[in-house]
UniProtKB/TrEMBL annotation:
One of its GO terms (cellular component) is microtubule. Belongs to the dynein light intermediate chain family. Homodimer. The cytoplasmic dynein 1 complex consists of two catalytic heavy chains (HCs) and a number of non-catalytic subunits presented by intermediate chains (ICs). GO terms for biological process: microtubule cytoskeleton organization; microtubule-based movement. This is Dynein light intermediate chain. Residues 1-22, 172-191 are annotated as: Disordered. Keywords: ATP-binding, Cytoplasm, Cytoskeleton, Dynein, Microtubule, Motor protein, Nucleotide-binding, Transport. It is found in: Cytoplasm, Cytoskeleton. Gene3D superfamilies: P-loop containing nucleotide triphosphate hydrolases. InterPro entries: Dynein1_light_intermed_chain, Dynein_light_int_chain, P-loop_NTPase. GO terms for molecular function: ATP binding; dynein heavy chain binding. It comes from the Eukaryota. Acts as one of several non-catalytic accessory components of the cytoplasmic dynein 1 complex that are thought to be involved in linking dynein to cargos and to adapter proteins that regulate dynein function. Cytoplasmic dynein 1 acts as a motor for the intracellular retrograde motility of vesicles and organelles along microtubules. May play a role in binding dynein to membranous organelles or chromosomes.
Length: 457
């Protein structure tokens, strides 16, 4: 009986072990299946803020892969197709582009509200074509965004949680290649999903580095400096040197530290960093892999992910500044030129006098008895010319007989000059010219008869 009991116990333990193995494999398969069914969220948004002519529409069109961008007005909507190659999944990333006119900031409520706030990333755009305005524009749009966020109906706990999330994202940044698992692994992508990490944070009290997130808006922010291909024009036409570009860069990077932002220098014209910006956005929003380290060697293709930079790294730029200091006022060093060769000056607009006003003025002059001005007749003009040639003052009302004789001889030589003589022009056969010659001959006859009558008397 004891032997039978031992056998039954052994069978029971084997069965339990088998069930345990089945349960383990079932759990693994269930986990893999759940991960395979995970879809990219469709409620993510990007909000683009910046002055007009900073390339907002062109930048989004480049991210979309569109060659012919269409500029909208006020608050423009677009979307970017996002594809996860590892899961064969895709979704649409909504993009809101606000007009650069500050009068349109009241439209922010349609793009950024209590519902969309946790799912929104903000892009600030500035252009290298107006480098003197970069810092002012960044500060102006950051202030407008901060004012709008303050008006949102959030509890103090919600605001604190969103700011804490940005702090942890900054502290959790790791250099590409430093991860313990391959970045291409879907398991790694899932484990490094930023939203999931923040839900299990153990480093709430870790201090932030110097000057980092001193203004925490609770949002992911990316600063994009567009049109960096214009740097060569600044060098040729405005005598910009490397120290000027370093001076600008260190101020922009300090702004990015203040707001916990990433920094991208892009050129849609030369296709610089546009593809990397797309990959960074999908990494920041969806947790997709991004394996590009910070790029600071090429001055027109800077790339600095959020969490990489520090005041110590920025101070490296100070070594190249000879004619300026890092803390100098931005516009004292980057001065707006009085005239820009690329823009051109508008010609002064000439306004014509109103027709009725002109006619009224002429009527008043006629009624007052003032003679209306008229153009000289051909005869009078010819007489004046003859007087200048002859040195004699001619009067139509009367003159000495000798003067009239000289005048008659001069006009006769004009009227009957041979066309074949050297330097003579061909006779004008037009009706107008014939009429002018006839009038001149009649006038000469009248003068001759008047002279004769005067002599007879």
């Amino acid at each position: 009986m004891e032997t039978n009991g031992q056998a039954n116990g052994l069978k029971s333990r084997k069965k339990e072990n088998g069930d345990g193995k089945d349960n383990l494999w079932s759990a693994i398969l269930e986990e893999v299946q759940n991960q395979g069914n995970t879809k990219l969220p469709s409620n993510k948004n990007v909000l683009v803020l910046g002055d007009n002519e900073t390339g907002k529409t062109t930048l989004i069109a480049k991210l979309q892969g569109v060659e012919d961008p269409k500029k909208g007005s006020a608050l423009e909507y677009a979307y970017i197709d996002v594809r996860d190659e590892y899961r064969d999944d895709h979704t649409r990333l909504s993009v809101w582009v606000l007009d650069g006119d500050p009068g349109h900031t009241n439209l922010l409520k349609f793009a950024l509200n209590e519902e969309t706030f946790p799912h929104t990333l903000v892009i600030f755009t500035v252009a290298m074509t107006t480098p003197w305005g970069i810092l002012d524009q960044l500060q102006s749009w950051a202030s407008a965004l901060g004012d709008h966020i303050d008006k949102l109906n959030f509890t103090p706990e919600q605001r604190l949680e969103s700011k804490k999330a940005q702090t942890q994202k900054w502290l959790r940044y790791t250099e590409p290649g430093d991860e313990l698992e391959p970045a291409t692994s879907p398991m790694k992508r899932s484990s490094r999903n930023l939203a999931d990490e923040l839900a299990h944070d153990d480093d709430d009290d870790a201090p932030l580095p110097e000057a980092v997130l001193t203004t925490n808006l609770g949002l992911d922010i990316v600063v994009v400096v567009t049109k960096t291909d214009y740097m060569s024009t600044l060098e040729k036409e405005h005598d910009y040197r490397d120290e000027h570009f370093d001076f600008m860069q260190q101020w922009i990077r300090r702004f990015c530290l203040q707001y916990g932002a990433a920094l991208f220098y892009t050129s849609a014209k030369e296709d610089k960093n546009c593809d990397l910006l797309y990959k960074y956005l999908t990494h920041r929003i969806y947790g997709l892999p991004f394996r590009t380290p910070a790029l600071i060697v090429e001055k027109d293709a800077v790339l600095i992910p959020a969490g990489w930079d520090s005041m110590k790294k920025i101070s490296i730029l100070y070594e190249n500044m000879q004619s300026c200091k890092p803390d100098d006022y931005y516009r004292d060093i980057i001065v707006q030129p009085a005239t820009r060769k690329s823009g051109g000056l508008r010609e002064a607009e000439v306004c014509a006098e109103d027709e009725q006003a002109f006619l009224q003025r002429q009527l008043a002059a006629l009624q007052a008895g003032a003679p209306a001005p008229r153009a000289d007749s051909p005869l009078r003009a010819a007489q004046r010319t003859a007087a200048q040639l002859d040195g004699t003052k001619i009067s139509m009302g009367g003159g000495s007989p000798g003067n009239e004789g000289v005048l008659a001889s001069f006009f006769n030589s004009l009227l009957y000059k041979k066309t074949g003589s050297p330097g003579a022009r061909a006779a004008d056969a037009s009706p107008a010219a014939a009429a002018a010659r006839s009038d001149a001959a009649a006038e000469l006859d009248r003068l001759t008869r008047a002279k004769r009558l005067a002599s007879d008397c």
